[in-house]
Amino acid sequence: MQAQGITQIAVYCLVLIALGYPLGLWMARVYMAEHVGGRVLGAIENGFYRLIRAEAEKEQDWKSYGKTVLVFSVLFWLVVYGIQRLQGHLFLNPNHFKGVGSPLSLNTAASFITNTNWQYYGGEYTMSYLTQMAALAVQNFVSAAVGLAVLAAVVRGIARRSSGTLGNFWVDLYRSTIYILLPLAVVVSVILIWQGVPQTLHASATAHTVQGATQTIARGPVASQIAIKQLGTNGGGFYNSNSSVPFENPTGLSNFVEMLAILLIPAAEVFMFGKMVLARRHAWAVFAAMFVVFLLGVAINLPAEQHGSQVLRASGVNLVAGSGQSGGNMSDKEVRFGQAVTTNWTVATSDASNGSVNGGFDAQTPLGGAIPLVNLFFGEVIFGGVGSGLYGMFFYIVIAVFVAGLMVGRTPEWLGKKLEAREIKFAAIGALFVPTLVLTLAAISIVTKSGLASIFNSGAHGFTETLYAYDSQSNNNGSAFAGFGLTNFSADLGTVAMLLGRFVPMFAALALGGALAKKKIVPASAGTFRTDGPTFVVLLVGVIFLTAGLMIFPALTLGPIVEGLMH
Amino acid sequence: MLRTAVSAVIAIVVITVVFGLGYPLVMTGFAQVAFPSQANGSLIKVDGKVVGSKLAAQGFTGKRYFHERPSATSPAYNAGATTFANLGPTSSTLAQQVQQRIRAILKLEGPYNPGLTVHDIPVDAVTTSGSGIDPDISQAYAQLQAHRVAAVRHLPLATVDQLISKYTKGRSWGFFGEPGVNVLELNLALDRMGS
Question: Are residues B56 and A328, on separate chains, in Cβ contact within 8 Å?
Answer without folding.
Answer: no
